[in-house]
Amino acid sequence: MANARSAELYDGFKAKLEAVSGECYRVETEEEAGKLIGTILKDKGVQNVALLEGEVSKKGNFAQQLKFMNIDVMSDNFRKVTPDAQAGITQVSYAIAELGTLVQADDDANVDQRLCSTLVPIHVAVIRTEKLLPSLAETMSTIHRLPRIPGFVGFITGPSRTSDIERVLTIGVHGPQQLIVVFVD
């Protein structure tokens, strides 16, 4: 695994995410990520997944690995398939260590990304460890230094939670009931 600084950032992110009931893992390769995700989903009884292919999932051949584990993979027509998908896998742009928060940043308001991360009961977010930043301020600065400011920026901190109904905490009302984050070195 990488240097002491990235280990410190990862540990901070993991502690914050787990404090809000998220799950966090770190692997060295894309292939390890695919195997880990398949094992986690299989253990949770997932039989199908909406996979929005990203650079990591393509390189790790997630689709084939999941199919090998008898998990049906749906990788297009997300408006139709995500309402019935048991999990969604996406690659996110950044992670913020101080908050345990993920950041989706896209040039366009990528509807497929949002469907696969919010309409499913389990969201699996994959991210390169090098995209783990220490603070919200540094993340915003990084986004503002991009050649073009993204048309969509979304923040994800743990599974969906609300206390709207009689001030009783409820998980999964406005989004996924579970959030699993896999960092890939």
H/I helix tally? 7
Strand content: 25-35%
- Anisotropy-based shape: globular
Q: Could you name the CATH topology? A: Rossmann fold
Summarize the helix and strand pattern as letters: HEHEHHEHEEEHEEHEEEE
The radius of gyration is 16 Å
Organism: Desulfosporosinus acididurans
Domain LUD: 12-184
Pfam families: LUD_dom
Protein name: Lactate utilization protein C
Write up what this structure looks like.
With 185 residues, the protein is α/β, with parallel strands linked by helices. The protein has one domain (4-184): NagB/RpiA/CoA transferase-like (Rossmann fold, 3-Layer(aba) Sandwich), CATH 3.40.50. The protein contains seven helices and twelve strands. It has a six-stranded parallel beta sheet with strand order 1-12-7-4-2-3, with helices on both faces. α2 (30-43) packs parallel to α4. The longest helix has 16 residues, at 4-19. The radius of gyration is 16 Å and the shape is globular.
What topology does this entry show?
Elements: H1 4-19, E1 23-27, H2 30-43, E2 48-51, H3 55-59, H4 62-68, E3 72-74, H5 78-81, E4 88-91, E5 94-96, E6 101-106, H6 111-118, E7 122-128, E8 132-133, H7 136-144, E9 152-156, E10 161-162, E11 170-171, E12 178-184
Parallel strand pairs: 1-12, 2-3, 2-4, 4-7, 5-8, 7-12
Antiparallel strand pairs: 5-6, 6-9, 10-11
Helix pairs in contact: 2-4
InterPro entries: FTHF_cligase-like_sf, LUD_dom, NagB/RpiA_transferase-like
Domain LUD: 12-184
Protein name: Lactate utilization protein C
